Amino acid sequence: MIVNPLHLLLGSVALAGASPSPIARETMEEAALNAKTLVHDVSIGTMSSVFSSESPNAGHPFAIMEYHAPCHPSSSLTFSLMPISLSTHNILQDKHHRATYTVSMPYDNARSAMSRARVSLIGNITVLDYDEIPWKERERLRSCYHRYHPDAWWTPMRRQRQPHESFWARLDIQDIYYVGGFGDTHYIGHIPVDMYAAAGENSSPSMVIQV
């Protein structure tokens, strides 16, 4: 997991010369950048799916930890999924491959975990056929993913044939819901996907308000 400590230790407002009091409330534009920075810095999240109608738990949600990496063009995310995984099974059973992925800021030394930023990315999973991915793109995905998860020895090396063999997948985002922390100083609500995708593209990402 790649975490830039500067992003976790910034003060209430990271604008040079800004007065620390009163604290300016996080805007939607700032929230878009903060959410994107969070997803890039914290590469472990929670994948949520729904049990299919064939399951004894039909209709119930299911959520479990997953790895991700920002190796596809913004705003999509990259995954190395295994069919043996229950969440993967649920997603593939849904004809639209719907899923929600949540990333939360670590809360070590925070006054409250509820004061830390978290974002839910709502969308669809696209399974990438290994044989149809150009060789250079395969190598790029593998190299990028391993920068975030050097322990991920299970990344695809061929077209998936066994339940314990992984395949590349991409989460394409349709909606974003962000909670920056407590509502008196942080943005809480939906963020337009195009605003999120464009955030920080012309500058180095950095959080602009304490989360």
TrEMBL record:
Any Pfam family: CREG_beta-barrel
Q: Cross-referenced InterPro entries, in alphabetical order?
A: CREG_beta-barrel (IPR055343), Split_barrel_FMN-bd (IPR012349)
Domain CREG-like beta-barrel, which positions? 27-197
Which UniProt keywords are present, listed alphabetically? Signal
Taxonomic lineage from the root = Eukaryota, Fungi, Dikarya, Basidiomycota, Agaricomycotina
Q: Which PANTHER family match?
A: ADL397C-AP, CHROMOSOME 8, WHOLE GENOME SHOTGUN SEQUENCE
Q: What is this protein called?
A: Pyridoxamine 5'-phosphate oxidase-domain-containing protein
Species, as recorded: Papiliotrema laurentii
Signal peptide (from-to): 1-18
Q: Does the keyword Lipid metabolism apply?
A: no
So which domain of life are we looking at?
A: Eukaryota
Q: Does the keyword DNA repair apply?
A: no
